[in-house]
Specification:
The chain has 429 residues and is α+β, with helices and mostly antiparallel strands. It has two domains: 3-201 and 332-417, Zn peptidases (Aminopeptidase); 203-330, Alpha-Beta Plaits, CATH 3.30.70. Helix content is 34%, strand content 21%. It contains eleven helices and 18 strands. It has helices at residues 3-13, 15-26, 36-48, 131-150, 172-179, 227-247, 295-312, 314-318, 340-353, 368-373, 399-417; strands at 52-56, 81-86, 95-100, 121-122, 125-127, 159-164, 187-189, 197-201, 203-212, 216-217, 263-270, 276-277, 280-289, 322-330, 333-334, 359-362, 379-382, 396-398. Strands 1, 2, 3, 6, 7, 8, 15, 16 and 17 form a nine-stranded mixed beta sheet that branches. Strand 4 (121-122) and strand 5 form a beta hairpin. The protein is elongated, with a radius of gyration of 24 Å.
Length: 429
C-alpha cells in the first residue's frame, strides 16, 4: 500500500476519534490563565504517541526582556507551553506545526445556542469556544502526526508540534518557544482560514490616545472644552489615515479584503456626569500593519498624524494629544507565494481537494510573525474553521473541513520532511 493511500485510509477510519478528541479539548475552558487543563489533554495525547516532550512554564530565557515581548500578564505559572517532537532520521527538512491552546472569553452566554464549552455536535458541526480558533486546527495537526506513526511511516526531517499559550494577547508562548531554540525549515499554523492558504499575515498593535478637555457645567458648556468633541476630531483624522495607508496596498493577495490594514476604534471612555463637560477622553483601538511594514514604521505614521493635529488645532497646541502603545501586538508575516513550502502545501491541497487552493493575505495577525521575524522560520497559515465565528457566540467548526485539513497536512509532511528510503506504510493499518 502506498504511503499516501495508507494515510488517507487511517484518517478516514479514525474520524470519530478525532471528533471526540476535539470535544474533549473544547470542553476545557482554556481562556487566558486557565490553559493548564487543556494542555494536560495535549500532553497525554503526545505521550500516547511516543513523542519527545518538552513542557515548561514560560518567563525565562530572557522572554520579558526581548524587544518583541508584549504582554501584561504578570505570571504564567501553572500554564505551561508544550512542544512535542517526532524525530526524523536526518537529511530531510524540518517543520513546525504551531497551534495555540488559549481561547478568548465567551461573552454573553445568553447569545449561545449551546453551552460555550459543550462541544455539542450538530449537523456535522462542533460547537464551542475555541472549536474554530483554533482547537480544530490543533486536532488536525495531531491527527496528521498520528497517521504517520500509526502507519509506520518514517520521515527524514523533524516534525515539531507546538501547543502554546498567550497567542490571543500577543504571542508570548510562541516567542518563548523560539527563544528556547525551536526553529525549523518551515512552519504551518492552522488558524481558521476557511481552508484558504495565507502566505502573508497582517500585523497589528493596540493603541491608547488621551484627549484632554476642560470641565464646565453642562448648562454653560461653552465655558468648557468637551473632550468628547475633541476626540471626534481625532477619530476623523484616524479614519483619513486609514484610507491613506490602505491606498498604498497594491498586493493582489489583498484584493478581496475590503480594508487590508484597518485602524479600528474599539473603546472610548469619557465623562462622569451628564450635566458636566468632560475634561478627558481615552480612545483605544487596534492598528493594522502591512506584511512588508515594520511595527515601528506603522507607529510613526500614527504619531505623525497626531503631531499634525497638535500643530493645526489651537486647543491641541496647548494640550497635546498623547499616544501609548499597550497590550497586544502581533508582528506581520511576509512569505513569497512561490516559496517551496507554499508550493508543497498547494500541491497537496490540490491532490486531496481536486482543485487549486485559494491564496490570499490574512486579514488578522497570528504567531507567524514571531516565527518568521524572530525565528527565521518561513510560515504559511492554513487551517479549517469558520473565521466569521472565531470570537463570536456560537463558534463552531465544520468537522469535514478538519478531517480534510488533516489529510492535506499529513501529505505535506511526507513531501516536505521526505519519507525514508524503502519505507512503505504497514499493510495491516
Amino acid at each position: 500500500m502506498s504511503n499516501e493511500l495508507a494515510i488517507k485510509q487511517w484518517l478516514k477510519e479514525n474520524r470519530a476519534r478525532g471528533a471526540r478528541f476535539l470535544q474533549l479539548l473544547v470542553q476545557e475552558n482554556s481562556t487566558r490563565g486557565n490553559e493548564s487543563s487543556a494542555q494536560a489533554i495535549i500532553i497525554e495525547k503526545c505521550r500516547q504517541l511516543g513523542l519527545s516532550l518538552d513542557i515548561w512554564e514560560i518567563g525565562g530565557d530572557g522572554l520579558m526582556q526581548h524587544p518583541v515581548y508584549c504582554c501584561d500578564r504578570k505570571s504564567f505559572g501553572g500554564n505551561p507551553n508544550v512542544v512535542a517532537v517526532l524525530k526524523g532520521s536526518g537529511g530531510g527538512k524540518s517543520i513546525i506545526l504551531n497551534g495555540h491552546i488559549d481561547v478568548v472569553p465567551v461573552g454573553d452566554e445568553r447569545n449561545w445556542k449551546h453551552d460555550p464549552f459543550s462541544g455539542q455536535i450538530e449537523c456535522g458541526k462542533l460547537y464551542g469556544r475555541g472549536a474554530t480558533d483554533m482547537k480544530g486546527g490543533t486536532v488536525a495537526l495531531l491527527m496528521a502526526i498520528e497517521s504517520l506513526i500509526a502507519t509506520g511511516i518514517k520521515l527524514k526531517g523533524d516534525v515539531i508540534y507546538q501547543s502554546v499559550i498567550e497567542e490571543e494577547s500577543g504571542g508570548a508562548g510562541t516567542l518563548a518557544a523560539v527563544l528556547r531554540g525551536y526553529t525549523a525549515d518551515g512552519a504551518i499554523i492552522p488558524e481558521p482560514t476557511n481552508m484558504k492558504i495565507f502566505p502573508k499575515q497582517q500585523g497589528s498593535m493596540w493603541f491608547r490616545i488621551k484627549v484632554k478637555g476642560r470641565a464646565a457645567h453642562g448648562g454653560t458648556r461653552y465655558e468648557g472644552v468637551s473632550a468628547i468633541e475633541k476626540a471626534l476630531i481625532v477619530i476623523d483624522s484616524l479614519q483619513r489615515l486609514e484610507k491613506e495607508r490602505n491606498r498604498k496596498i497594491v498586493d493582489p493577495l489583498f484584493d478581496k479584503v475590503p480594508i487590508p490594514i484597518p485602524i479600528n476604534i474599539g473603546k472610548i471612555n469619557s465623562g462622569e456626569w451628564p450635566s458636566s463637560v468632560p475634561d478627558v477622553a481615552v480612545i483605544e483601538g487596534r492598528m493594522g500593519v502591512a506584511p512588508d511594514e515594520t511595527i515601528t514604521a506603522a507607529q510613526q505614521e500614527m504619531t505623525n498624524c497626531l503631531l499634525e493635529l497638535n500643530e493645526q488645532d489651537a486647543w491641541f497646541q496647548e494640550n497635546p494629544l498623547q499616544i501609548e502603545w499597550f497590550g497586544g501586538r502581533w508582528l506581520p508575516g511576509n512569505l513569497n507565494s512561490d516559496h517551496p513550502l507554499m508550493q508543497t502545501l498547494s500541491e497537496c491541497f490540490a491532490d486531496i481537494k481536486g482543485v487549486d487552493p485559494i491564496i490570499e493575505a490574512s486579514p488578522w495577525g497570528t504567531d507567524g510573525g514571531i516565527l518568521s521575524n524572530v525565528g527565521d522560520t518561513p510560515v504559511v497559515v492554513f487551517g479549517p474553521g469558520v473565521t466569521e465565528t472565531a470570537h463570536d457566540a456560537n463558534e463552531h467548526i465544520v468537522l469535514e473541513e478538519m478531517f480534510l485539513a488533516s489529510e492535506i497536512i499529513a501529505l505535506t509532511l511526507l513531501k516536505w520532511c521526505v519519507v525514508c528510503e524503502e519505507n512503505t506504510a504497514k499493510e495491516d493499518q
